[in-house]
Amino acid sequence: MQLTSQDIDEVCGLVLDLCGVSLDETKAYLIELRLRELVRRTGCESYAALIQQARLTSERKLKQEIIDAITTQETSFFRDNTPFEALRNKALPELFEAKEKTPFPKRVRIWSAGCSTGQEPYSIAMTLCELLPDIARWDIQILATDISETAIAQASRGCYADREVDRGLPAELLHRHFIRDGSQWRVGDRVRSLVTFRRHNLHDSFLALGEFEIVFCRNVAIYFTLEAQKQLFLRIADAMTPPSSLFIGSSESLINLGDRFEPQYHCGSVFYRPNVPRPATV
Ligand SMILES: C[S@@+](CC[C@H](N)C(=O)[O-])C[C@H]1O[C@@H](n2cnc3c(N)ncnc32)[C@H](O)[C@@H]1O
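Above: query sequence and S-adenosylmethionine SMILES. Below: predicted holo structure tokens.
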């Protein structure tokens, strides 16, 4: 079925409304590829008709299927590697040291925002397990959220095929933290127990999520408009308690946020510390 310019406008409008992902006619091939099967299955006469149906129905199912189909869930264990080196060698040791003087020195809250199928939060959990031999005595929670229900369901199962663990996961970590389960690898209980998964749209309020000392929001905002990216990172800064660290994707930037974040260069990577916002001048 041929995609018309009206189809493209309708799809882009709904996708922007639902998840803030910004598409345009240059992504026509992607829209066609990812929504073709849904158009066929729902018996709609066109892509615009599918969008109309999704807008009119009060049920969430069709909207969710469109989100699942259109969002890019590309991810891998220890993606880009250097951010995890900086986490292990700089951000976490400095956090632990700063926490020694607080009433809850062993309490750590981490957020993997836009976690896709779970490789990112499990990589963070493995980093913590490797760093802390006494991790059972710590109160550590990694909240992992994504707008895609299918991604969250898969992440929560914690089962990966050979080709998924072959991407970025060192053999010794695979054998230490995963169990062979038929043709798959299942995340071991210790790593799994550190991570809580939840469906959440980054354009919704963060209030119910809590506050975090480490946030990973990598390769998610890149799909949003520049203004939506800016608002997202400012809201994330408000959800962080010092001393805190924000990790973003290697092709993302906080350059248009002025001095709200301070870059920290370590291990060939960069992460960001939120600065206290300046009081408004009168
Ligand atoms: C490319 S993956 C990145 C996964 C991981 N952070 C990484 O860097 O490997 C982007 C993820 O962002 C999610 N996403 C897109 N829009 C979102 C939104 N508005 N709220 C929450 N998650 C969103 C997608 O479902 C997808 O799983």
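The pocket of S-adenosylmethionine is lined by residues 19-21, 71-75, 79, 114-116, 120, 146-148, 151, 201-203, 218-220, 249 (CB under 6 Å).
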